[in-house]
């Protein structure tokens, strides 16, 4: 065997071994730095209010913008990954995140925090997180499910460690110096990105993946050119721009799936509504505890308890939901987890004692683990995998909208009533109503599909439902057996 052939064969199987496990370790750290980071912002809520003389609603815009941009910047991240590759985008995200938090330490108004910590840091975290998840798909094939499950533990580690570190630095140095240190910590996303070097595939795979697909509308454009139309003709240029714009929206924001796929329509609507209340406990739990006399260190510990339990429960939930018994039924598990999230909020309304809040965090963490582990699995159940990335783009944009407006509107309600209980009432309303909507709608959709299949089978073979005499003659050996249909999703 020649050296060239040996090198080609060696490059053909870089996945699931060697450097791939270093990339997985980098992904764990990356998710802890990005997705885990917003959970600690509630610790600074009271200090920022006093510093800038801001209301609850004004202060809550800062974490809302950060979380909304983190989730809603997915389509832009996908475009950058396509142009520049995952490694560059992860490192760019690290630079933006660090720059945003360093700039935040010099802010003189709460509105400046919206731009620096909210927009810039949120966008940087989005780039690092989503590009880091994408690169795992290249490095892992056989062990891809395990790799994604292990990488998601980084979120739980972030939930556990960020609040403890934040409270310690806040007590020792104040919020400005803490934000400055956070900027340096988030720059470690660049180190994680450096580890995620571009994967070297076989030359055949590269040529196949690099071959551009024929895009819709290209034939129409070629037909106009063949008829004598100049490529610089104004009408043709406008048509080409509209076609490319439509293709871009179709690729990253699949409105056609939303209109045609009832399951995707129900799920996306339900999750978008759910997000109005899902993030509220993360933003307001620490201020609520401090407002009711809980010591600041103990209040910060509440968020860490949620993260610590997530470390163990989330992977177990993912493994359980992957069992074949739940194939096509994961939406009901998801709805049950959302319902439990909503019901758990009533514990905070009963009492604000530290022991009661610990019980609340335990139950909320178990429910949140189910929501976190099942969100994208359910989306894969209701959408074909070849359109999953497009469906995910619209899904994240819509949920980021409600993530953005939920906390500020609830903060305005708290400002008017001066009662933190309305945070948990509001959260419970959105979560419980979303859970009931998704569960009942999918149940009705499943029954409708079964009736449609039954009526179709009746039309195709009416004699099946009528009495008829059976022939006693043996059937021909050449007759093929009936086809078996496997239903794997709703």
From TrEMBL:
Gene3D superfamilies xrefs: MFS general substrate transporter like domains
Source organism of the structure: Rhodinocichla rosea
Underlying gene: Slc16a5
Pfam families associated with the record: MFS_1
Entry keywords, A to Z: Membrane, Transmembrane, Transmembrane helix
One of the record's GO cellular component terms: basolateral plasma membrane
Name listed for the protein in its UniProt record: MOT6 protein
Compartments reported by the entry: Membrane
Record bears the keyword Lipid biosynthesis: no
InterPro entries tied to this protein: MFS (IPR011701), MFS_dom (IPR020846), MFS_trans_sf (IPR036259), Proton-linked_MCT (IPR050327)
């Amino acid at each position: 065997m020649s050296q060239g052939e040996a090198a080609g064969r060696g490059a053909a199987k870089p996945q699931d071994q060697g450097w791939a496990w270093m990339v997985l370790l980098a992904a764990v750290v990356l998710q802890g730095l990005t997705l885990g980071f917003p959970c600690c912002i509630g610790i600074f809520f009271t200090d920022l209010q006093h510093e800038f003389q801001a209301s609850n609603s004004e202060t809550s815009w800062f974490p809302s913008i950060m979380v909304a941009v983190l989730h809603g910047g997915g389509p832009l991240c996908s475009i950058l990954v396509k142009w520049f590759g995952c490694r560059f985008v992860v490192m760019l995200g690290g630079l933006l995140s660090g720059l945003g938090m360093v700039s935040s330490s010099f802010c003189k108004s709460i509105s400046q925090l919206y731009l620096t910590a909210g927009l810039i840091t949120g966008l940087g975290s989005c780039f690092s997180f989503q590009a880091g998840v994408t690169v795992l798909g290249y490095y892992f094939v056989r062990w891809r499910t395990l790799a994604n499950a292990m990488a998601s533990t980084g979120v739980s580690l972030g939930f556990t460690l960020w609040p403890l570190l934040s409270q310690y630095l806040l007590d020792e140095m104040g919020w400005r110096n803490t934000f400055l240190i956070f900027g340096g910590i988030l720059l470690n996303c660049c180190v994680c990105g450096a580890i995620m070097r571009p994967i070297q595939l076989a030359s055949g795979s590269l040529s196949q993946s690099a071959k551009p697909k024929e895009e819709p509308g290209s034939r129409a454009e070629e037909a106009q050119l063949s008829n004598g139309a100049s490529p610089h003709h104004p009408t043709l240029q406008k048509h080409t721009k509209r076609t490319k714009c439509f293709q871009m929206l179709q690729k990253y924001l699949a409105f056609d799936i939303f209109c045609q796929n009832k399951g995707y329509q129900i799920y996306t609507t339900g999750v978008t509504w759910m997000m109005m209340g899902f993030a509220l406990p993360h933003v307001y739990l620490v201020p609520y505890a401090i407002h009711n006399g809980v010591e600041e260190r103990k209040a910060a510990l509440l968020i860490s308890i949620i993260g610590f339990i997530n470390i163990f429960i989330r992977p177990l939930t993912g493994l359980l939901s992957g069992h074949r018994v739940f194939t096509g039924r994961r939406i009901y598990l998801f709805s049950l987890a959302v319902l439990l999230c909503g019901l758990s909020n009533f514990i905070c309304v009963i009492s604000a004692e530290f022991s009661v809040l610990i019980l609340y965090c335990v139950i909320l963490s178990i429910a949140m683990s189910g929501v976190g582990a099942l969100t994208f699995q359910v989306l894969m159940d209701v959408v074909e995998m070849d359109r999953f990335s497009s469906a995910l783009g619209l899904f994240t944009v819509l949920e980021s909208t409600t993530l953005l407006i939920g906390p500020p509107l609830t903060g305005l309600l708290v400002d008017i009533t001066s009662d933190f209980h309305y945070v948990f009432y509001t959260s419970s309303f959105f979560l419980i109503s979303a859970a009931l909507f998704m569960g009942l709608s999918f149940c009705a959709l499943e029954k409708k599909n079964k009736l449609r299949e039954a009526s179709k089978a009746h039309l195709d073979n009416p004699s099946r439902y009528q009495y008829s005499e059976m022939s006693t003659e043996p059937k021909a050996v050449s007759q093929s057996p009936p086809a078996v249909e496997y239903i794997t999703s709703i």
